[in-house]
Design a protein that fits this description.
The complex is a heterodimer. Chain A is mostly helical. Chain A is about 75% helix and about 5% strand. Chain B has 2 domains: about 1-80 and about 160-240, P-loop containing nucleotide triphosphate hydrolases (Rossmann fold), CATH 3.40.50; about 85-155, no CATH class. The longest helix of chain B is centred in the C-terminal third of the chain and has 16 residues, at about 170-185. The chains are: A mainly alpha, B alpha/beta. The interface of A and B includes residues 214 and 330 of A.
Chain lengths: ~350, ~240
């Protein structure tokens, strides 16, 4: 009987989209040969935001964990990179990976504390935890205290021989991390975990009733996103070559803007955070000189989106045309005559 | 008959409001039990206590001889207790088929291929196969209720808890539903069914209990219980639409 059913993932739209996506990635991978240094820097920033937005989207959109404290892991990743490279002599690229790992490890006790809180209290709790991190690092005099530190010149030379080579390397790392973040969400969503996470997103009590261990699922999501967020944070400060508590644990740079991106683009999808990042950078290019009006514009757009289209730009598009570019859905195809299927 | 479920003097109160009052209940393996009672009598709370959504203040819940009073809902589901909610909780953003896959993958730890086939089979059994790839959020209320039952069945339950799934159906649809539930029962699944549509209930259940103010006020052969003076008194209004 089972051979009459087939489960399909991809659709024509998704196959076209994936081919285009592959072409775009190839073109972007070649950017160090065709783009200027300023453009490269901006692309690095875009890639890091795509990665951060994917992680926040996974956390809030699927795990239902609305954290406003993800800057804790961005900053932690950055500081661990600086500390490992400067004091332990770890090569910068290895330090990058270790920084992500440490962020994930630190997320374990953090989760045990934060998960005691629900909803809005969880959100505030994560912020408070991030502030504790910021104040803690501001006390660490070896790391420059409140004014922070720069990456020593010798270590900067370790990354790559020349400044253009270093910038190209960081560019590829950023592209790789953005793809890794997208890939992580994609593979998670296609797996058994994805079923559980999507179910939790839609109804936690029903998930429990169907055998989903909601606490454990959320815990895994929280720790995994913290690790990737830490890795991205480490790369952000590897590019900047300088770190300070206020920059590293900035709630507006690493969480508020990311939330803006995910809300605008569409929460609970892979496409949403990518679209949101593009929209955000387009707006920034357009309106960055407007001073305070720029922030008012962003805030206004976010509020309008939440009121008019709570599932964001991609939510509207995917609902209107039943579209999914990243094939994570499972479609049932019944082969054979329907008449005997109903008998 | 082996006992699959036992509630031993279970009580639950919210503040001064007692919703379950010293309730004891025993269900044999393979038995189908009907539950009736006025709105707010504590029927759904009883389901929450059995399935693990609510922990009782007093008393014990035994499932197949094991004390599960402290066990979480997810664990009880994997042990074989499948439930539907009176107010449907669909996974609105997932397709109907994916809703069932959650149950198959987590409620019964089925390997992928088996889960895929089983979920498809349940869709056919419950008449939802044509809606397989539709987002659950677009279903009508009646379809959502059917999805509640289908999702519970996807977990391959040994004990199925059905909470008011017949309301609003046409006579024809109701007959279909009764036939489906009879077939499930005939396959060896124990059933507890809360239902206001009494004639549907009476076609399936072996035994009937009446709950009012959280306590069991009558129990026994379905027709005898329906004809008892207490039930007639409570059900004067409800019998008309039942």
């Amino acid at each position: 009987m089972s051979e009459r059913y087939q489960v399909h993932r991809s659709t024509r739209a998704s196959r076209v989209a994936m081919s285009l996506f592959a072409l775009v990635v190839l073109a972007l991978a070649a950017a160090p040969w065709w783009a200027g240094r300023g453009d490269l820097r901006m692309l690095v920033e875009i890639f890091t935001y795509v990665g951060l937005a994917q992680m926040w989207g996974l956390l809030a959109g699927y795990g239902g964990l609305v954290s406003i404290g993800q800057q804790a892991f961005v900053g932690l990743g950055g500081y661990m990179l600086f500390a490992l490279a400067t004091f332990a002599g770890v090569p910068p690229l290895a330090a990058l990976l270790l920084a992500g790992l440490i962020a994930a490890l630190i997320a374990i006790p953090t989760a045990l504390v934060a998960f005691r809180l629900q909803g809005a209290y969880f959100a505030i709790g994560t912020w408070v935890i991030a502030e504790v991190f910021r104040l803690g690092f501001a006390q660490a005099s070896a790391l420059g205290g409140g004014s922070g530190m720069s990456l020593p010149a010798g270590i900067v030379r370790d990354i790559a021989a020349s400044a253009p080579a270093r910038e190209a390397l960081i560019y590829w790392l950023a592209l790789g991390l953005a793809l890794a973040a997208i890939g992580m969400v994609y593979l998670l969503l296609r797996s058994r975990w994805g079923l559980a996470m999507t179910a939790i997103r839609d109804s936690e009590p029903a998930s429990e009733s169907l055998g989903v261990e909601t606490w454990r699922t959320k815990f895994v999501v929280y720790v995994a996103t913290a690790g990737m967020t830490g890795l991205i944070g480490a790369l952000i400060f590897l590019q900047k070559l300088r770190i300070s508590p206020d920059a590293a644990f900035s709630v507006s740079d690493w969480t508020a803007l990311v939330i803006f991106i995910v809300v605008i683009g569409g929460i609970g999808s892979i496409e949403g955070p990518i679209i949101g990042t593009i929209v955000f950078f387009a707006l920034r290019e357009l309106a960055a000189d407007w001073g305070a009006w720029y922030m008012i514009l962003l805030g206004g757009i976010a509020v309008a989106t939440m009121l008019v289209a709570p599932r964001g730009i991609w939510g509207v598009i995917s609902e209107r045309w039943d579209l999914q570019l990243f094939p994570v859905r499972r479609r049932l195809v019944v082969t054979g005559a329907k008449a005997d299927a109903r008998a | 008959m082996q006992e699959i479920l036992k509630l031993d003097r279970v009580s639950k109160a919210y503040g001064s409001l007692t919703v379950t009052d010293d309730l004891s209940l025993s269900l044999g393996a393979g038995e189908a039990l009907g539950v009736i009672g006025p709105n707010g009598a504590g029927k759904s709370t009883m389901f929450n206590i059995i399935a693990g959504g609510v922990r009782p203040d007093k008393g014990q819940v035994y499932y197949r001889g094991t004390d599960v009073t402290g066990a979480k809902a997810a664990r009880r589901c994997r042990m074989g207790i499948g439930r539907s909610y009176q107010i449907p909780h669909p996974f609105a953003g997932m397709t109907v088929y994916e809703n069932l896959l959650v149950g198959a993958a987590f409620g019964d730890d089925m390997p992928r291929g088996e889960g895929f086939a089983h979920a498809a089979h349940v869709l056919e059994q419950t008449g939802l196969i044509d809606k397989a790839n539709v987002r659950a959020g677009t279903l009508t209320l009646l379809e959502r209720k059917r999805l509640e039952m289908a999702r519970a069945l996807a977990t391959r339950p040994k004990l199925l808890l059905l909470d008011e799934i017949a309301g609003g159906l046409t006579e024809h649809e109701c007959n279909d539903l009764v036939a489906t539930i009879k077939a499930i029962h005939a396959s060896g699944v124990s059933i507890i069914w809360i239902e206001h549509i009494v004639h549907a209930l009476l076609e399936v259940v072996d035994r009937l209990i009446v709950i009012n103010f959280g306590a069991k006020i009558a129990e026994g052969d379905p027709h005898e219980v329906m004809n008892s003076a207490e039930v007639r008194q409570i059900y004067m209004g409800l019998e008309a639409d039942g």
